[in-house]
Amino acid sequence: MADLPLIQFNNWRDPQGYRLENSNQLVVRNGRRKDNFDVLEPLKNKVLYSAFANVVITPESLLKFVQSYGPLTERGHDQGDEVRRVLWHAARMRDLLKIMLAQRKNRGLAKTSGFPNLVLHAAIDWERRTFAPRWAFRPNTLLDGLWLQLGQAITRGTRLQTCSLCGDWFEVGYPSDRRLDSKFCCDEHRVQYNSQKRSKGG
Q1: CA–CA separation, 46 vs 141, rounded Å?
Q2: Domain ranges of the chain
Q3: 150 contacts 141 by C-beta, under 8 angstroms
Q4: Alpha helix (H) ranges present in the chain?
Q5: What's the DSSP call for residue 35?
Q6: Other residues' Cβ atoms within 10 Å of the Cβ of residue 36
Q7: Terminal alpha carbon distance of the chain
Q8: Closest among 19, 17, 67, 59 to 42, alpha carbons compared
Q9: Which pLDDT value is given to residue 202?
Q10: Quick check: 146 and 127 in contact, CB under 8 A?
């Protein structure tokens, strides 16, 4: 199976953090415009799209996500991420993930609101070890990058499973590091589940 096109994206995060404003309608930075910021590469986590869809359900959970990975939209760096808009995108991702989880045919995707238009740049990049040419995609925003990750997962036929402990989606089989018969999103949850089961006498 061919490697996926590389996703190159740098985001920046206010080291002073973020807060909810205007009755939880905006996530805005605490620092001033001229303050320094942290540079991040959040999309190195190749399943961040799944974490976004699983976690971002309320204004408070969106705030926590931004605290970790930086703003999701261009507006987020200056005027603030619009909570309603970002929560809408997270809900649409959950719709698509449910379809993937149910392993429906591709035409089932048309029954949802589908993918938004993404803004990204494409360039030829050179693989560091072999110097072979490959496509590199550069999304404009973190939100575009998350949709791009999800699009890659769908088009390569990614298989999803729900964790028996937390209920979150996670990828199984190639190219993930989880076996096809995995029941847990991580080893920590497997240990915790079995520990709880033993304590209940199961």
Answers
A1: 16
A2: 6-157, 159-202
A3: no
A4: 48-55, 59-69, 83-101, 142-155, 187-199
A5: S
A6: 9
A7: 41
A8: 67
A9: 57
A10: no
Structure tokens at 86: 């970002």
Partner residues linked to 120 by β-bridges: 139
Q: By three-state DSSP, how is residue 183 classified?
A: coil
Could you read off the pLDDT of 143-177 as tens digits, one per residue?
999 999 998 887 776 677 767 777 666 767 665 66
Angstrom distance (rounded) from CA 178 to CA 172: 5
Cross-strand partners of 135: 124
- Amino acid code (one letter) for 5: P
Integer-rounded Cα Rg, in Å, for the chain is 18
Structure tokens at 59: 């204004």
As a whole number of angstroms, the distance between CA 41 and CA 109 comes to 29
Cα 152 to Cα 118: distance, rounded to the nearest angstrom: 13
CA distance 66 to 164: 27
- In this structure, the chain runs to a length of 202
